[in-house]
Specification:
heterotrimer, A mainly alpha (325), B alpha+beta (600), C mainly alpha (279), B: 600 residues, alpha+beta, 30% helix, 20% strand, C: mainly alpha, 12 helices, 72% helix
């Protein structure tokens, strides 16, 4: 019962967001073709009223709003997200082309920052109040105070320009010919290092603190005291009890963060010229590309709501204390 | 007799030359050390210009230029002006309505099919059927009819004389292969490999929208010159100067205030070559000139606009915001590097005293405690003379300077930056006082057309009639006089007050490719970019293969033929005191027994 | 641990005090008028300690005045968010039916992809300080409302609340006298988190070019530095990009230290104090 009402609840939320998504670009000044006539471009496109109408009709933007709304909703159900006006390609194709890179970036850095965060958080909690704990705590608070774009630029200057050991732009060497797949993977990883490092450093704080706090909580619980009193080794206690129990909130938090992170990469993408969803959204906004804007929002909404839903489910599964109403 | 010998000898010579070109090409193709040229295609988020097929590139200059590497037009432009491309030569009837094009007999499509006059006829009719979908231009409806005379002769009939025909249509419309496009019903969704088959000097190998990169390879069978490169790549870079220095790319370009980076190359890296070019771009203040006082007051008063012009220090904007990476603009809009430039337009010297005097004489005499003037009693508006200055975010620094300048003459300005959309809405509705906006393509007089030129509120029937007259005027000098008049009207009436023209720079590594140049009046209809397909070609007639047609090339050939010691008159076939492609083609045409070129 | 908490808290307070002083006395501290133009792109010298920018403004003076803008936005957004969030949280926690409605709105707002929506709206509105503030407020009130509500839900069950009710205390009296004082520590911590969030979010928007170019915040100074074409290939970044960046970092750091110290004091079972821009 609980799960069904949850599903219904998410359904309503998605519906609300999709509607906001539909109306927002249309409520904003300018229309989907106004970017075409920006005279400030290197060469302005001359557009007569007739030509404008032909194009609006071509994209179905001359129809009444209600009809457009229905087309939009039906399209989503059928998996047809429409045609991007600026990119002159199916929205789905445009998004998928970039999503690949966003997922590589987000996936790698999430895996790394979670692992590191857990290790460091556990280390810190175990040494609570001692020098090691304070040292870790202060360094991580400090790193987390950096806006991710600032961190990225510093890394680019130090490792990309001064030391010149990592590339500072792109996800892959353009049209390189590789002698083996391994070489290609290496090339991709080489380009991934700095952007991923930036994301790891700017996100590690969350996991670290959560881990440290849950560990501290768990370590204070009676059963750990008992275990200690039984004379079990610290390592054993850490593995058997503390770690297992502290992981739960981390799983939840991670699931909830990933959805937001897909967009949060926009700063890293801007600094490192990394292809991704963030910059795509920025361009879609700049060019008033309604269909693309809607498509990206749909993806982000699905990612965020989906991650929330998964987090809920995991929580119910993992935590025996949550009662199943 | 001497002439016949000459012609025969030229014929032999060009055949030998072609043969050697072909032979060398085979050699190049077989060689392992392929020459690749990489160009920085833009900054993050802005290096993707769309699939380079005629209907799918993004409607911006860089998109068109990437398409134009694959597709040829009837005519093209080099550093000196219009040159033959798919058309070897052309004639125009005296009424300016009938154009006959003699097509190149060696041109082939990338799939090895022959290019013929049918393709030209098909293209124009296809474009007319899909009106509006080729977003790049609107002039296709000027064409009445296309007749194929034979495989290599095509006649285009216009509804009315069109002075800019050679540039705006012949030099702009990419010719499509009929055998591919005849089955395509929706060209905007046609993105097969076939969609990029053209006659151009390069062939598309790969395009990646997400990575914003293009990969081209040489079309060794190209009909109009020898390829200087084997591969060309346009890619996104995070930081252009760094990418050039590390050798990630071989060419980058800069614009306006980016002169800082150009200066850095000039001072610290002499191994790179710098070419300066005109941007054909102007930044301007647009005034609301609506005669209806409820909308246009007070900027619809000519003297008020003049006072503002005298109150804006354009030199300061150029030196502080552009870092001297440009020049104060021609008040008549057309770019000083264009042949249409009128140097005698009215100039409004920066002088706050003059501005103050004008404003005083208009009755804006009362000032509040902050020195802001008050509207005269009984005027359309009352209170402080204050209004919004709308602009896109990137010109907010210019707007800030104007705000300071105008405060000194008692006019209060609130700077309101936004994206283009909201400004576009305001311009269309006439709901503004002043807007700062740029305008590109000011090497082409067609840009002076009022509706396309964002001074929607300005009405002047005399101006409109001059504009229409120049559109159909086939005589270059007369047309130039008319365009001069248009510029004087703009400079006197000030519907817009132009601020500056920025420069552009192309910085490249000459060891990789040394042929970069800026096109006369811009690529196609006026794109001010350095990516002209000619940079990849050593054209016929380039005897010493320096990538430029010069006196030496033609003379060298003549000396060989006639065993002459002196330069001959023959070198300058059209007698314009310059040696260019036309001269060479002229000679070729004489040999082939065709009519000579007439430049419109 | 108490030691560490106190030290970090004092360091944080110290940093914040310095920035507040700079903001308040900016006209006396800044060596030049930030709008005055000198020779562009000057390297640091005795007359321009951090050199001049691309249009010849003194960078140090820009940063000093930028402190005002950055702190002002953060302060105003946080104060209003707390006022609105706390009131709604109190009401939602105390009155069940209203509470249900408010919480559903909170749920929706929290699920909307926040950063993309901010980017979309920010690129269409006029990027003035007040519009930015309004934009952040759309989202700012939700987290405090949710957290305050759950705290109120627990507080309500306390015996003295029932006792007060029995002797005829009005709902308003109970909320004002008994519940509000108990949630104040939470509100203070939330205030700091919101301030951190706004500082980072504002600088992020500026970095993307969506800030207010007229009111130079630290983020805008940073944005123009990043736009400079030789920022990577010369030493310019050291005096143009690093200082505003570090100002942002130190403000966030100061706030975090204070927030951390407070949270450890009020609530040893603390939650993580980091809500990055992407939330």
């Amino acid at each position: 019962m609980h799960q069904i009402s949850k599903l219904a609840y998410y359904f309503v939320i998605v519906l609300i967001i999709l509607s906001i998504n539909f109306s927002l670009p249309r409520a904003m000044p300018g229309d989907a073709l106004s970017y075409l006539t920006d005279p400030g471009a290197d060469i302005p496109v001359r557009m007569t009223e007739e030509k404008r109408e032909i194009l609006l009709a071509y994209y179905g933007l001359d129809k009444p709003l209600s009809e457009q709304y229905i087309t939009y909703m039906v399209g989503i159900i059928r998996g047809d997200l429409g045609w991007s006006i600026y990119y002159s390609a199916p929205v789905l194709e445009v998004i998928l082309g970039r999503l690949k890179w966003t997922l590589i970036l987000v996936g790698t850095s999430t895996a790394i920052y979670i692992t590191l965060g857990i290790l460091l958080g556990a280390t810190s909690a175990w040494a609570r109040g001692r020098k090691r704990d304070m040292g870790l705590l202060i360094s991580i608070i400090s790193i987390s105070s950096f806006p991710s774009f600032f961190l990225g630029i510093l890394l680019a200057i130090i490792f990309g320009i001064k030391l010149d050991i990592f590339p500072i732009s792109g996800a892959q060497t353009a049209f390189a010919t590789y002698s083996s797949p391994l070489e290609e993977i290496f090339d991709i990883l080489h380009h991934l290092v700095l952007p991923a490092a930036t994301l790891v450093l700017s996100h590690i704080g969350g996991t670290y603190f959560l881990m440290r706090n849950s560990m501290l909580g768990v370590l204070g619980e009676d059963y750990i005291m008992t275990a200690r009193a039984k004379g079990l080794s610290e390592r054993y206690i850490l593995h058997k009890h503390a770690l297992t129990n502290a992981l739960l909130p981390i799983v939840t938090m991670t699931a909830m963060t990933v959805g937001f992170m897909i967009m949060g990469t926009i700063f890293v993408e801007t600094v490192f010229a990394y292809p991704g969803i963030g910059n795509l959204l920025y361009n879609a906004v700049s060019y008033n590309d309604y269909p693309l804007l809607q498509g990206i929002f749909l993806f982000l909404t699905i990612a965020i709501v989906g991650a929330n839903f998964i987090a809920d489910m995991i929580y119910i599964r993992l935590d025996p204390r949550v009662n199943h109403e | 007799m001497k002439k016949t010998v000459l012609i025969l000898a030229v014929l032999l010579c060009s055949m030998a030359f072609s043969a050697s070109v072909l032979a060398e090409n085979d050699g190049v193709a077989a060689m392992d050390s392929d020459k690749t040229v990489k160009m920085a295609g833009g900054t993050p988020g802005g290096a993707d210009w769309g699939y380079p097929a005629p209907f799918t590139f993004y409607p911006r200059g860089p998109g068109y230029s990437r398409m134009s590497l694959l597709f040829d037009t009837l005519t093209w432009k080099d550093a000196d002006g219009v040159i033959p491309a798919l058309a070897d030569g052309w004639t125009v009837s005296d009424d300016g309505k009938t154009w006959t094009f003699y097509l190149d007999r060696n041109a082939r499509w990338h799939d090895n099919e022959l290019f013929t006059a049918d393709d030209v006829k098909f293209t124009i009719e296809y474009m007319q059927d899909h009106e509006g979908e080729f977003t790049w231009f609107e002039a296709i409806n000027y064409i009445n009819d296309v007749q194929v005379i034979d495989d290599y002769t095509v006649v285009i009939d216009l509804n009315a004389p069109m002075a800019s025909f050679l540039v705006d249509i012949a030099g702009n419309v990419p010719i499509l292969p009929e055998h591919i496009w005849c089955d395509v019903s929706d060209p905007r969704t046609f993105k097969d490999d076939d969609a990029v088959i053209g006659t151009g000097p390069l062939k598309l190998v790969d395009y990646d929208s997400a990575m914003s990169s293009y990969q081209y390879e040489a079309n060794y069978d190209y009909y109009d010159g020898k390829l200087l490169v084997d591969e060309f790549i346009s890619m996104e870079v995070g930081d252009a100067p760094a990418a050039l220095k590390t050798g990630d790319v071989d060419e980058v370009s800069f614009w306006g205030s980016e002169i800082i980076a150009v200066q850095d190359f000039k001072d610290n890296h002499p191994e790179f070559t710098i070419v300066t070019g005109p941007s054909f771009w102007v930044l301007q203040v647009i005034f609301n000139c609506d005669a209806d006082d409820t909308k246009g007051y007070p900027t619809n008063i000519l003297e008020f606009r003049q006072a503002i012009a005298h109150g804006i220090d354009r030199d300061e904007i150029v030196s502080q915001v552009l870092n001297d990476g440009g020049i104060p603009a021609n008040t008549g809009i057309m770019h000083p590097d264009s042949i249409w430039y009128n140097p005698d337009c009215a100039v409004y010297e920066y002088n706050p005293d003059t501005a103050n005097d004008i404003l005083d004489s208009l009755g804006f005499t009362e000032k509040n405690s902050e020195g802001i003037r008050q509207y005269p009693a009984g005027a359309e508006r009352s209170g402080n003379v204050e209004f919004y200055l709308y602009t896109t975010g990137k010109f907010s620094r210019e707007a800030g300077l104007i705000q300071t300048d105008l405060a000194a003459i008692g006019i209060g300005i609130y700077v309101s930056p936004s994206t283009w959309g909201p400004i576009d809405d305001r311009l269309k509705a006439g709901n503004f006082d002043m807007v700062i906006s740029g305008h590109g393509g000011i090497s082409n007089p067609q840009i002076m057309r009022i509706p396309s030129w964002p001074a929607s509120t300005y009405q002047n029937s005399e101006y409109d009639s001059i504009f229409t007259a120049q559109e159909v005027e086939m005589d270059l000098d007369t047309r130039k006089e008319l365009v001069d008049q248009l510029q004087e009207v703009v400079a006197d009436d000030l519907p817009v007050y132009t601020l500056y023209h920025p420069y552009m720079w192309c910085v490249y590594n000459p060891e990789v490719l040394d042929t970069w140049f800026y096109t006369r009046d811009g690529i196609g209809i006026g794109i001010p970019l350095e990516l002209n397909k000619l940079i990849f070609l050593a054209r016929y007639g380039d005897a010493n293969e320096n990538g430029e047609i010069s006196m030496q090339d033609v003379t060298k050939m003549e000396r060989m033929i006639l065993e002459l010691d002196d330069e001959s008159d023959m070198a300058d076939a059209n007698q314009d005191d310059e040696i260019n492609m036309q001269d060479v083609t002229h000679i070729e045409l004489i040999i082939l027994g065709r009519a000579p070129i007439r430049i419109g | 641990m108490i030691e560490g908490r106190k030290i970090l808290g004092s360091i944080g307070l110290g940093i914040l005090t310095i920035f507040v002083i700079v903001a308040v006395f900016a006209p006396y501290i800044a060596p030049h008028d930030p709008h005055q133009m000198y020779r562009p792109m000057e390297h640091p010298s005795s007359s321009h300690l951090l050199g001049t920018n691309d249009i010849g403004n003194d960078i140090l003076s820009e940063i000093v005045y930028g402190t005002r803008v950055s702190l002002f936005i953060a302060f105003v957004v946080s104060v209003i968010s707390m006022l609105v969030g706390t009131s709604l949280g109190l009401v939602a926690g105390y009155f069940d039916k209203v509470g249900f409605l408010i919480m559903r709105v909170v749920d929706v707002v929290l699920t909307i992809p926040r950063l993309p929506l901010i980017i979309v709206i920010a690129s269409f509105i006029r990027p003035s300080i007040w519009n930015l503030i309004a934009l952040f407020l759309i989202f700012g009130w939700t987290m405090p409302a949710r957290i305050i509500r759950s705290e109120v839900l627990t507080l309500r069950r306390r015996y003295y609340i029932d006792a007060t009710k029995m002797i005829g205390g009005s709902d308003f009296y109970i909320l004002w006298r008994h519940i509000l004082p108990n949630v104040i520590p939470l509100v203070v911590v939330q205030f700091i988190m919101e301030a951190i969030h706004v500082i980072l979010a504002e600088s992020g928007l500026c970095f993307l070019g969506l800030g207010d170019p007229v009111a130079m915040s630290w983020g805008m100074v940073f944005h123009y530095a990043f736009e400079c074409p030789i920022i990577y290939v010369s030493d310019v970044w050291m005096w143009w990009m690093l200082p505003p960046g570090l100002c942002i970092v130190f403000t966030v750091l100061g706030l975090t230290f204070v927030g951390y110290a407070l949270e450890e004091t009020f609530n040893p079972k603390l939650k993580n104090p980091f809500g990055g821009m992407e939330r």
